[in-house]
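Notes continue from the previous slide.

Worked example: a multi-chain complex. Inputs as given:
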Amino acid sequence: MSTSIDQGAGAKNTQLSRSTEFGLAVRQLRREFRLPEYLVLIFALVLSVAAVTSVGFFANRVERAMAAQAATLLAADATVASPQTIGDVVRKQADEAGLTVTDVIEFPSVILNADGDTALVSVKAVGSGYPLRGQVLLHDKLYGEESAATGVPSAGEVWLDPRLAGSLSSEVGDKISLGELEFLVAAFISFEPDRAGDVFQMAPRLIMSADDLAASGLLGEGSRARYKLLVAGSEAGVDGFGEWINDGDDASLRFETVEQSRPAVQSALVNVRRFLGLAAAVAVLLSGAAVALSARQIAERDMDTSALLRAFGAKSSSVVRIVLMRLALIAAMAALLGSLLGYLAQFVLSSLLAQWFATALPAPSLLPLVGGVSCAVLALAGFCLPAVSKAVSAPVVGVLRRDLPKARPSSWVVVGAGVAAMLILLSWLTRDAALGSLLVAGLLVVLGLLWLISRALISTAGRVKSPFWRRALEGLRRRPNSVSLQISAFSVGLLALLLLAIIRTDVLNAWQKQIPDDAPNFFMVNIQPQEVDAVESFLQSRNITGQQLYPMIRGRLEAINDRRIGEGGFKDERARRMSERDFNLSYQGKPRETNTVIAGDWWAADTDQFSFSVEEEFAEETGIALGDTLHFKIVDKKVSGVVSNLREVEWESFAVNFFVVGTPALLKDKPASFVTSVYVEDGQAEFVRDVVRKFPSVTVLEVGTMIERVTGILDRAALAVQYVFLFTLAAGVLVLVAAVLASRRERFHEAAILRTLGASRKYLAASMSREFVFIGLLAGLMASTIAAVLAWAIVELVMNLEYHFNWVLWVIGVVVGVVAIWIAGSVASRPVLRQSPLAVIRSQV
Amino acid sequence: MTIIQAINLSKQVVTAEGTLKILQEVSLSLDSGEVIAVVGPSGSGKSTLLALLAGLDSASSGEINLLGQPMHQLDEDGRAAVRAGQVGFVFQSFQLLPGLTALENVMLPLELASVGDARALAESQLQLVGLASRQQHLPSQLSGGEQQRVALARAFVIAPKVLFADEPTGNLDRATGDSIVDLMFTMRAEQNSALVLVTHDQRLASRCDRVLTVTEGRLQ
């Protein structure tokens, strides 16, 4: 029976080989996987990784799309953009710098097919040589063979966005009307280099030759067009040209290289990514709570194992390594499974937001996996390691004495590690340390408040005298802290989902509903001064009366008093955008009914003063005060006036309104186009067709379609964020399961004693069911009610709209709370009912 | 050869009510292959004495030499190094790792002592205790008697120079307990291991070479 051990070598042989340690870690893990606390730990980690990687993979695809197209993002090495025609001085300078140039002019318009159907298009008139970098890809028929374009559309020909093939039933070879000309559809556009970053594409594209522009009559003075001069050449040449533009005194010219254009393109997506990251972060945090709860039970189990291993002669360092290896294995597995789930989940995310992108997104790189692995490691390190590492130093004498108190790490260490992990995770997920810290603080406050409310509710419920509820509520009363944590964690997930559901349905609906029935449903823009009378009589002939045509003049704000725009920085990004962009100015003598002067006085209708009236919110954003002198540049002339009043505007009326209005004396002689909004009750299609035929240069925009597009974009964004919040809800359920498991030992004993005293399984099951129903009811009630209150605050206080309480969503919230918690709780506590009381009492599980 | 030499061992703990003396001035020695029983009423300090002798806990004062190593001068890891591959344990509550199979539990001390072919040795040891067919069972799938057999296989698989047994029959019925004790004594005799047996059972104590009685922390 003797073995081959070298009897004298014991004291030297305790340094386990790494492979032995690894073998032990693997074996231990393989067996322990069946234990529910390990399952919860793994699920929680998988969920965190999936939430993070789904957003990561999606963002990666978008970034890759942008990176792949960066070289051709501008279709040039650089561009000069202006709201006005770019002058010959600029072209001459480019020529001197040895640069190749071409023109691109973009503006909205309406096209008409042979059947009289109309469609809004985004026209792009291109000069010969376009694109200077990259290439345009065309289809010879709808989604047919793809080929690179040679040159630009010939005179009298256009290339169309394939989307127009559906809306207008146009095909290659068909004729369409645009402005005063008729064009032949020569091809469908498959890829357009400088549209890659155009995230929110509103209207389908039409590309025509810039040579046709003059004859089409589409652009008159003050027309709303964007002029670009594309340049390409040597780096030194481009740089020198850029410096010349930037140093010049024409502030309307904007020089942009690929590097400069990218941040602007990305900013919208950065915001969406931030929201998605936020949703993922909340899921990670709740999963962290589940990890922490299961870590506590794992640590208790580890104490026995650690003591036994050391009783048999293992060194502490070996035991530590075995624990770390096991955690590393768990992290690796969770990272792998979670990343796979995240990869699959991002397909849904991409399809939800697909319509935002001009081109199909490329496949993601493996980079987000780094994020997934880091998330799993960080969650384990922050939420699990403090508890488990304490188990390693459990007294060895514990193998002899079961009554020793369980060594638990200090609460400060546990909370500190958790908060540190949260801070790192959130700062990384939101790409903003300040926002990350704010979120951690915010989430802790929300959880704390929910916890306090549930504690108060539980304490009130504990006073119930009904014997039916007494047993169920006894459980709650005895475990108020743990039950409150379950309720709070689950409520956070449910609350987020309900709030987004309310925003998607009620808030967007409320916004759409507050638009009056007879609000204008069409905007007519680009009306040339010589067309004003004709347009007015055309409207009268259609019984559309009372609509005024407003002059619209494009200008750029150069200075407020003596302060040039941009000097001393801007209040925020919004203020910068508002101040720097080109303005649509107008002039009028009499005040408008839908405008209320809130500071200063409106001028006399026939005043000869040079004054401005500014919309109040715009004034606040840009720092304009009553009495300030505003200096505008209109075409190449300077126009200055004093702010004599501030106005409040009812934007919801959908009437034409302007941020800045001047006196006729100040602006009447400036180049203007006219704009109006009209309500057309019947025959809307005929109305659009007739306007396009009679006034080819006038663009008709349908308000309904615009609202649909805007709400569509908001709806998809909310849906995408809501989708990521599903991970949060699942994490909430996991916290519940983890909490039920944490109290399982206690439940086992309660159940064993009750059954010894004669309670049936049915009785116990019913009693536990009541407890879970009650927990679910509290969680559902809190989530639904708080979501409704927040929705009310958003609608009534922020958006100034009328809030209608949504009973259906409120009830759905409560029902989801009850059902989800009942199912999760019942499943988690099933072993309690199955175990024989004798076994429980004997083994002291 | 002296396996254990304890001189003036004392253990005291500080509680809210003052200092509690668990063991006072205990001296004993154990020779190779010798079997001693430690008996005494509950709370007398038997298990504490066993823990100190095995180096599972440290004494407040006094000296312990286990297998020639001064345990009182060693830290936790040093004491573990002395135990590895040389000291076996049998506990009242079996102390099998719940996540490992019977075979893996037996392999554990071999792996900790870096013994090659741990699996084959563990399998033959399980065969010796009559559990060859239960190798892949988890502790929860075994009866109390079977679990204690696995514990015996685990204790003897390294051919320990000394075995510490703490109430090995305490959780078993009499018949099962007797068969376990018989098996333990047979295996010990075959390997000529010294045995320190803590027990309440006078019948069991009477099978040992010497009986040491602990009362109120003192050896009588």
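Summary box: Chain B touches chain A through 50 residues (CB under 8 Å). The domain at 34-56+86-219 of chain B is CATH 3.40.50.300 (Rossmann fold).
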